[in-house]
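Progress report, Aim 2. The chain analyzed during this reporting quarter is listed below.
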Amino acid sequence: QIRIIVLYHEDKQRLVVQVTNSVDPVQQQQRIQMHGEHATQLLQRRSDGSSALSSNIGGKALLGAAALLDGQCTLRFTPTATILRMEVHAPQQESIPMSKALIIYFLDDEATMRRRYKAWISSPIDPASKVFPDLN
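Predicted structure tokens for the chain:
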């Protein structure tokens, strides 16, 4: 199960986007033992078990975008979930049209993960979703 929360704090002029994935508790306990509960450092570098071909482009992009927007990005492991949270400076709230389509843009240059993401692009994820960068 994946939960996506988008909040705007008008008084602080902050936009928060949080993605929470439920996890296998046994595997998650292993992650916590290996990396700790506060695992933001994994966004900056490959972790044990990552492919040697991965440059960690997605994590670096998240951290870079957060830094450009005077914010931060964090990754936490709890016994029942993985929580990725980005909070950035957003001086003006904007109303944008929303659709029920779940369009996701995946960013990864590691072949195994790219295949996995492409396989995920099926209902309920909209076929307009894409995997970047385009390596074709």
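The chain is about 25% helix and 30% strand. The first strand starts at residue 2 and ends at 9. These observations will guide the mutagenesis work planned for the next reporting period.
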